[in-house]
TrEMBL record:
Family annotation (InterPro entries): HATPase_C_sf, HATPase_dom, His_kinase_dom, HisK_dim/P_dom, HisK_dim/P_sf, PAS, PAS-like_dom_sf, Sig_transdc_His_kin-like_C
PANTHER family reported in the protein's UniProt record: PEROXIDE STRESS-ACTIVATED HISTIDINE KINASE MAK3 (PTHR43065:SF10), SENSOR HISTIDINE KINASE (PTHR43065)
Membrane-spanning segments: 12-36, 71-91
Record's catalysed reaction(s): ATP + protein L-histidine = ADP + protein N-phospho-L-histidine
EC number: 2.7.13.3
Source organism per UniProt: Blastopirellula marina
Domain Histidine kinase: from-to ranges: 237-447
Class of this enzyme: transferase
Record has Mitochondrion as a keyword: no
SUPFAM superfamilies xrefs: ATPase domain of HSP90 chaperone/DNA topoisomerase II/histidine kinase, Homodimeric domain of signal transducing histidine kinase, PYP-like sensor domain (PAS domain)
Descriptive protein name: histidine kinase
Length: 453
């Protein structure tokens, strides 16, 4: 149900109505009792009139007439009291009916708000919470007693009070803000708008919160796939167009070296030739990276034991880890990991690249943790380092091709890893903070044909 502040005014009208009805019944009883007295008095006066002398009969008849009018007035009062009682009964029934309708309406509104997939919070003009739905309690990890407290007490990780203050100063209907919950890695998107009563007067604000973590991940993957499609075509074209001229340059450099061997040349000329050969070799390496990135070759699929694959790659990375003072921990489940259908060479390349990237993030030593787990249809591999983390300004570009913050390398390592994982119908993401970075690789165990893009 919708959690709101319950006031004590629900039964305010019930007691006055019950009091008026009781008063009307009391007056009715007194009127009937008075009419009975009138009837007795009238009978007594008539009896006395028959016994009075003739000269006193006129006065006695006037008294009888007066008692008759009083009796008639009592009848009118009786009818009025009966009508009043009926009106109070009808009013009481109408009140109960309106209360039931109001309760049904509140229950319906509460059910609707509780069934919404995003949190709804209402506050008064001073920022004190007046209501919150069930999704809001679950999303923010709060308790129902948060109602009537200030908005700043609702969550320690999401500063909703500052967001509300910014909205009150700007009053922009389109204002939205994303908050990152550090404890769960979730992204919450908040919006705010004015809360008005039936007369249009502002009585507070309505805040809506939605968990957009999955949506942001999907949008990032879509943008990444679009970049890969364009860069893949570009890489294939560059490899084709540069390979032949580069081969010709390399051949002519070799012929020039053979000719110069027959004559004496200065060390300066030899140094220049060495530079040319080195640069040609470097360009050839870049072209190989282009070719790998744009490769459309079929995968050599086979059943792969993930535990053995992890052990082999960890053994390959151990010498460099020891040299840098990095402690390596492998955490595997007690039960055997399910096998995956994969290209062993490419999966080894992807895993080793991630391990090397994690070690490069810890030049002064640290811990490298490789943790594997499995469920009914997928395996999950986490590679965590204790480096300085990835700055927020660079996180969107981590998987971009040719992007690197190091002085060496082409920047194709992580983008190539991501592409290999996607070819196997898997997913590669990361979580980063000041305490380090964790790359999460998820691969299916179902026997499906991987993508060939």
């Amino acid at each position: 149900m919708f959690r709101n502040h319950q006031g004590g005014t629900q039964n305010n009208f019930r007691f006055p109505i019950a009091g008026l009805l009781l008063l009307s019944l009391t007056a009715l009883a007194i009127t009937i009792w008075t009419m009975a007295d009138f009837l007795r008095e009238q009978a007594i006066v008539e009896e006395l009139t028959r016994k009075l002398p003739r000269d006193s009969t006129a006065t006695a008849k006037e008294l009888v007439v007066e008692l008759g009018w009083q009796f008639r007035l009592s009848i009118l009062v009786l009818l009025n009291l009966v009508a009043t009682g009926l009106a109070l009964v009808l009013l009481s029934r109408a009140y109960r009916s309106s209360q039931e309708s109001l309760r049904d309406l509140k229950a319906l509104a509460g059910d609707i708000l509780s069934s919404m997939d995003h949190a709804v919070i209402t506050t008064d003009r001073n920022g004190f919470i007046t209501s919150i739905n069930r999704q809001g309690l679950e999303l923010l990890g709060s308790k129902p007693d948060c109602v009537s407290k200030h908005l700043e007490s609702l969550s320690k990780t999401i500063p909703l009070d500052r967001f509300l203050a910014d909205w009150q100063s700007d009053r922009s209907v389109s204002m939205t803000r994303d908050f990152h919950a550090n404890n769960s890695g979730r992204t919450v998107r908040a919006t705010c708008q004015k809360l008005s009563d039936y007369e249009g007067r502002e009585i507070g604000q309505v805040l809506q919160l939605r968990d957009v973590t999955e949506r942001i991940l999907i949008e990032e993957r879509m943008r990444r796939m679009e970049r890969y499609m364009g860069l893949g075509s570009l890489a294939a074209g560059l490899h084709h167009e540069i390979r032949n001229p580069l081969a010709a340059v390399s051949l002519h450099v070799q012929l020039l070296e053979e000719q110069l061997e027959e004559s004496q040349v200065s060390e300066e000329v030899q140094l220049m030739l060495a530079v040319i050969k080195a640069e040609v070799t470097r360009i050839g390496g870049v072209l190989e990276g282009f070719r790998d990135f744009a490769s459309m070759d079929k995968l050599n699929l086979e059943p792969v034991d993930l535990a053995k694959l992890i052990k082999r790659q960890v053994d390959l990375a151990l010498p460099q880890a020891r040299e840098q003072g990095i402690l390596v921990h492998s955490i595997l489940p007690d039960s055997p990991l399910p096998k995956i259908t994969a290209d062993l060479v490419r999966m080894e390349q992807a895993l080793l690249n991630i391990l090397v990237n994690a070690m490069q993030a810890m030049p002064n030593g640290g811990e490298l943790i490789i943790k594997a787990s499995a469920n009914s249809d997928s395996v999950r591999l986490e590679i965590s380092d204790t480096g300085n983390g990835i700055p927020n300004s660079l996180r969107e570009r981590v998987f971009d091709a040719y992007f690197t913050t190091k002085s060496e390398g082409t920047g194709l390592g992580l983008s190539l890893c991501d592409k290999i994982v996607r070819q196997h119908h898997g997913n590669l993401d990361f979580l980063s903070s000041e305490d380090g970075t964790t790359f999460v690789m998820t691969l299916p165990t179902l026997q499906v044909s991987p993508l060939l893009d």
